[in-house]
Amino acid sequence: MDVTVGKILFNEEQIRKKAKEVGKMITEDYKGESVYLVGTLRGALLWMADIMKEIDLDMEVDFIEASSYQGTDTTGVVTIKKDVAGDVTGKNVLIIEDIVDTGTTLFKLLDYFKGKGAKSVEICSMLNKPSRRRAPVSPKYNGFEIDDLFVIGYGLDYNQKFRNLPFVGVAELR
Ligand code: IMP
Ligand code: MG
């Protein structure tokens, strides 16, 4: 199957502007505290880079790689392929995600970090597809809400390609 870029939904300027707004909210909400940013590999790379510059707080930065696939059960199976490097005990974990789709991955990650003794765990996602939700996950910080479309660019891939596009666009499959 061939994939091309269709409609551009958000360009770099719009995303950077949004990161500024969201970063400001985070800065206010966690005033006087430290945050422990955990970017989800590999899709959140560019959003993570934008958002961390806009958060004016004491912070540490880490990454995790999880993969989810739908098994026969409805919740899907999530495996951690690369764990965080640091200790999150007592930390305010803020998961930086590219997109929340069914919510399966984040549902597992929220539980995972709570289990590791984090003081708090919240989600900051660039994109949100609420119509696709299957697990009860609602990101506290959201960039943009989109319809049930498959999107690529700005970190998001189709078969590992297109992550480098400096915008989020709709993938056209043909
Ligand atoms: P969830 O567990 O279903 O919420 O899956 C979330 C993950 O699926 C995201 O972190 C992305 O890696 C991937 N994903 C979901 N929707 C899209 C999309 O439209 N484009 C590219 N990747 C997507
Ligand atoms: Mg992802």
- The helical percent reads 10-25%
Structural class: alpha/beta
Kindly report the spatial arrangement of strands forming the biggest sheet: 4-3-2-5-6-7
Distance between the termini: 6 Å
**Average pLDDT figure:** 95
Characterize the biggest β-sheet.
6 strands, mixed
Tell me the total number of β-strands.
Answer: 9
Low-confidence stretches: none
User: Globular, elongated, flat, extended or rod-shaped: what is the shape?
Assistant: globular
In angstroms, what is the radius of gyration?
A: 16 Å
Write down the secondary-structure element order.
Answer: EHEHEEEHEEEE
Bound molecules: inosinic acid, magnesium ion
Beta content: 35-45%
Instruction: Count helical runs.
Output: 3
How would you describe the overall organization of this protein?
The protein is an alpha/beta fold and 174 residues long. The protein is built from three helices and nine strands. The protein has helices spanning 12-29, 45-53, 104-115, and strands spanning 3-11, 34-40, 58-69, 77-82, 92-100, 120-128, 141-145, 151-152, 167-173. Strands 4-3-2-5-6-7 form a six-stranded mixed beta sheet. A three-stranded antiparallel beta sheet has the order 1-9-8. Strand 3 and strand 4 form a beta hairpin. Helix 1 (12-29) crosses helix 2 (45-53). It is globular, with a radius of gyration of 16 Å. It starts with a strand and ends with a strand. The mean pLDDT is 95. Magnesium ion (MG) binds at residues 40, 43, 98.
